Amino acid sequence: MLYETAIAAEIFGVDRSDLSRTGDWYRFAVCTADGAPARWLPDVPTRSFAALADADLVVVPSASDLDQEPRADLLAALRRAHHAGARIAALCTGAFVVAAAGLLDGRAATTHWMHADVLATRYPRVDVRPDVLYVDDGPVLTSAGKTAALDLCLHLVHRDHGASAANGLARRLVVPAHRPGGQAQFIDPPHDPQVTDGLGAALEWARGHLDRPITIRELADRAALSTRQLARRMRAEVGAAPLAWLQQQRIVRAQELLERTDASIEQIASRCGMGTAGTLRRHFSRVTGVSPTTYRTAFRN
Predict the structure, then answer these.
(1) What are residue 32's phi and psi, to 5 degrees?
(2) How far apart are CA 215 and CA 65, in angstroms?
(3) Pfam families attached here (predicted)?
(4) Which tens digit of pLDDT belongs to each residue from 207-244?
(5) Beta strand pairing call for 134-137 and 140-143
């Protein structure tokens, strides 16, 4: 999983002491089991796992195979580093390795949203937060997937060297200087399972008429069901109550319009059935964690 590893190398492994208020920077090394050079970062100094005990910051990159048990000597080295006072920062699915070492027990943590449920099931003592970019829990930090690892690394630079250094580094990397950890991960819109018969036709009709008010009674009539039958079937087959499903579809439609059109927020609110721009902003921010304008900036095609 080279992407997150390369992010850590770029942030911590390149001398940017000119940005630091103290005039120093990180001394960066890759740790392998026996200290042998890493094929994927051949020009970086290499140490053995034993050297982790002397580190101030240990960055655990993504794990490529979540079903493979991490090496026992790596887990032991991480525990020793933690007990010696090192901060442990897990990038993306590196959280699985840190959790296997027991260092996330009783802590809040995150990982890529696609794997958050697996992390929570496998390690029930971890308070998994699937909808944030990163979690700073003092000595142990975790990030969500992919570029959220960059957000966490810049956050660490901010902690260690101040806002000026983090902002200067972000400008050099041509990335946003700061995205707060509590910002929601951008998760793919949910897809309905294949629903057949009258209910499937009713849901398809509703998706085509999101610009107008739709009542549960109307949806039930189109599905040839009672409102009670509609609610029961939608919870069982779609995973949401009728009103929650409609709200979800309106948000998905707003996302599509923000990505693909130049329509104003007011126009989008009308076209997805939210009524006013204020209503759209409120519900959109609650679901995605960002404003419609911020979402458009990030995902405009």
Answers:
(1) -115, 170
(2) 46
(3) DJ-1_PfpI, HTH_18
(4) 999 999 999 999 999 999 999 999 999 888 887 889 98
(5) antiparallel
Question: Which run of H or E residues covers position 208?
Answer: none
Domains 2-173 and 197-299 share a fold: no
**Dihedral-angle region of residue 71 (phi above 0 means left; psi in -120 to 50 means alpha; beta otherwise):** beta
Listing from the earlier edge strand, what are the strands of the sheet with 134-137?
A: 57-60, 87-90, 140-143, 134-137
Identify whether the C-beta of residue 6 lies closer than 8 Å to the C-beta of residue 149. Answer: no
Q: Any idea which architecture 2-173 has in CATH? A: 3-Layer(aba) Sandwich (3.40)
Q: At what angle do helices 197-207 and 227-237 cross, to 10 degrees?
A: 90
| 201-210 per-position pLDDT tens digit | 999 999 999 9
**What is the DSSP code (8-state) at residue 52?**
G
Tokens matching residue 30: 């890759």
Domain boundaries along the sequence of the chain: 2-173, 197-299
The pair of structure tokens assigned to 198 is 């009258």
| The two three-digit tokens of residue 122, written as one number | 């496998």
Q: Which architecture, in CATH terms, is 197-299?
A: Orthogonal Bundle (1.10)
Full-model pTM: 0.68
Torsion sign across C-alpha atoms 21, 27, 30, 34: negative
Both structure tokens of 204: 């398809």
